[in-house]
Design brief:
Largest sheet: 8 strands, mixed
Bound molecules: cytidine-5'-triphosphate
Radius of gyration: 18 Å
Order of helices and strands: HEEEHEEHEEEHEHEEEEEH
Number of helices: 6
Strand order of the largest sheet: 5-4-1-6-9-10-12-13
Number of strands: 14
Structural class: alpha/beta
């Protein structure tokens, strides 16, 4: 598979990202409550892995920072860094961001983490547990957005659950708040879009454009997103 990916990239139709360094985040984060439990979400990482693989196919040098997933490391010129919690994901991104040309934040980062980690399994002897105190996690996309240099392109995702008009407004608000150059909107209101599926339906939104795509395989969606990016390099 590795040989095929390298040959494919070498002889590929377009090496539009040759010489570019691309950072991709993917998957969920697992914020530990105790040694056997965590707060997480249903993200499988498929979209981010597809973007990393396609960027490598186009000749980029890719760093994929991945939360826990069942997916194998993508073949080709992809350095896969496995992390578990949001703070580790942030540290891994910060260590390469200065040398990055394009960063695509597709991870579904847990917004909150338990304030205290209980180092032994919480027993079920209590009739109820009053609360698990949560603290806000760092916003990785916003942190990178705040130190972005001219010439670096930062792309975010927005997973929304509401009606289309609200979803677009929320996505544009995130574009501004996190100082992104582009945001990929997908909404759970669309069948076949979102977590776990092999397909996705996205609208790519920039400051001066919005392009809506049909329902497609995540590999094809990755290709559309990278086309939008290369058009604006
Ligand atoms: N993101 C991130 N770090 C976080 C939260 C989100 O890097 N702690 C990134 C995601 O990878 C995505 C973008 O920010 O590219 C938007 O994520 P989303 O969860 O839709 O937005 P939130 O800022 O978490 O807003 P909300 O949960 O209120 O919709």
């Amino acid at each position: 598979e590795k040989i095929a990916a390298v040959l494919d990239a070498f002889f590929g139709r377009q090496l539009s990202l040759k010489g570019k360094k691309v950072l991709v985040t993917a998957g969920p984060t697992y914020e530990r409550i105790d040694p056997v439990r965590f707060i997480g979400n249903f993200s499988t990482g498929k979209m981010g892995y597809a973007i990393a693989a396609e960027a490598a196919r186009r000749g980029a040098d890719v760093t994929l920072v991945s939360g826990p997933t069942d997916l194998p490391d993508p073949a080709g010129s992809v350095n896969t860094v496995r992390v578990e919690i949001a703070r580790q994901m942030l540290a891994a991104c910060e260590s390469v961001f200065a040398q990055t040309d394009i960063a695509v934040m597709s991870a579904a980062v847990a917004d909150y983490a338990p304030k205290h980690f209980v180092d032994r399994k919480i027993k079920r002897e209590h009739d109820s547990v009053d609360s698990i105190e949560l603290v806000k996690n760092p916003d990785i996309a916003a942190t990178l957005g705040a130190c972005k240099r001219a010439g670096q392109l930062l792309v975010g995702f927005a997973l929304e659950t509401g009606a289309t008009a609200d979803a677009e407004a929320n996505a544009r608000e995130k574009l501004d708040r996190k100082n992104l150059d582009m945001i990929v909107l997908n909404t759970l209101a669309d069948k076949g879009a979102g977590f776990g599926t092999d397909t996705n339906k996205v609208t790519v939104i920039g400051r001066d454009f919005a392009e809506a795509f049909q329902l497609k395989s995540k590999a094809e969606v990755a290709s559309d997103i990278l086309d939008c990016i290369t058009d604006r390099l």
